[in-house]
Amino acid sequence: MIALAVFLSVQIADAQVKSPEDVKKAVESAAEATANPKKAVKVATWLKLANAYMDAYNSPAGAGWRGASRQELQFILGSDKPTSTEQVTLLGTPYTKEVFATRNYYYTQEGMLDIIEITQPVYEDALAEALAAYRKAFEVDVKGSKTKDISAGIQIIEGKYLEEGIAQYMFGNNELASKKFEAAAEASETAPYSQVDSMAVYNAGFTAELCGDYERSAKFFKKAIEISYTEDGEAYAKLANAYLNLKDTLASKAVLEEGFTKYPESQSILIGLINYYISSGENPEQLFSLLDKAKENEPNNASLYYVEGDIHNKLGHKEEAIAAYRKSSEINPEYEFGYIGIGILYYNEALDIQNKAATEMDDAKYMKLVEEFETALMNASEPFEKAFEITKDKNIKVNIAEYLKNIYYRFRDEDPKYKEAYDRYDKIVANGVAAL
């Protein structure tokens, strides 16, 4: 109890929030000092201004902090109570929103403060002004005596911009989110901190893409690739998509081909290339030429043959797709995706036949389609069973069980072994990983 009391007393002491009037006076006083020629050459003058702007930035946020529990904040905030409370949903996630005079708090279902939204800032550009003051502090700090302090301050600003970017993304304000992520990236690169925030660069492009600003998304995805932050090739696919929307098909193709040579397993790049060759009418054999180059470098990479199977599958080359999927499993008998590829191919074939049968009015033709449907289903069962047996990933097992459950449901009344198989996979689907 004593320890808890000490902890809370420290928290409350730290939680004393300066009023808008006080922080404004502090900023004005610090800014006045920078206009004095004798004081303007001192690093302490600019650090004081930077700190004053940061206090002004933090003031409307109140005493709350991200990660604090709602229960402890109710104690710490004291008389600073919300004017209203409501339940909201952000990107499919439920939150409890508390509305204050200067900000909104968003709590997770677990009661943790996740987002602080400032609604009444003291200065609209407090972070930018603080960053400018740190730049000036570094400029006049010829001896480098405050380099660590300046870097630490810049890092905090970067973090604040990131928090704002994430919050705006959660609110669905992707245009503003992109600008916040860009500001975070620029702050991070500011000397003397001078760090490349690759995630901020990528997210600036990602949110720009979401709001349809393809000029902007191309700019950031291009930079992300330059700094080798590609998200397993996703940056190439997104840059290509930006170029495509900007009507530069040649640039889009070039980016996809470059990305494919580096990330041949990327489904986003692969789909982009296939769509390009189909829509343009160009010979898709170029895809296999690119893949052959990758095989030369890694002849025992089973996933490359899986990709080859996927290309054939998407182009409608059934037998070639099955052969490539089988080859991937031959190279690595523990590579479950070759079997999964074959299973999905036959399963989708069965669904196509089922759709045809649903519209067939001729009884003889209908029965023929039903026979083909059941054959395709049974063809899918064997590779799915093999994949289920060899995979070590329990989540993949559950996904495969969904297919097998549906297959054996069709045949459960024809043979006890199919009924037993159906019951087994139905239980796994119902109970998930816990059933394994």
Strand arrangement, major sheet: 1-2-3-4
Beta-strand percent range: 5-15%
- Tally of individual helices: 19
**Number of extended strands:** 4
Percent helix, as a range, is: 55-70%
Dominant shape:
elongated
Ends: how far apart? 45 Å
Poorly predicted ranges: 1-15
String of helices and strands:
HHHHEEEEHHHHHHHHHHHHHHH
Helix/strand-derived category reads mainly alpha
pLDDT average, as an integer?
Answer: 92
Quick description:
The protein is mainly alpha-helical and 436 residues long.
Structure write-up:
The protein is mainly alpha-helical and 436 residues long. Helices cover 69% and strands 6% of the residues. It has 19 helices and four strands. It has helices at 2-14, 20-34, 43-58, 70-77, 126-140, 147-171, 174-188, 198-210, 214-226, 234-245, 249-262, 267-280, 285-297, 302-314, 318-331, 336-359, 363-390, 394-411, 416-431, and strands spanning 84-90, 93-99, 103-107, 113-118. It has a four-stranded antiparallel β-sheet. Helix 3 (43-58) runs antiparallel to helix 5, helix 14 packs antiparallel against helix 15 and helix 17 (363-390) packs antiparallel against helix 18 (394-411). The chain is elongated. It starts with a helix and ends in a 5-residue tail after the last helix. Residues 1-15 have low confidence and may be disordered.
